[in-house]
Specification:
This protein is mainly α. It is built from one helix and no strands.
Length: 24
Amino acid sequence: MLTYILFVLGFYLLIKGADLLVDG
């Protein structure tokens, strides 16, 4: 369960970071 949460959180941060790179 914890591994799944970490995976989703990491994936979210990856998308968030990519979005910021596109905006900037």
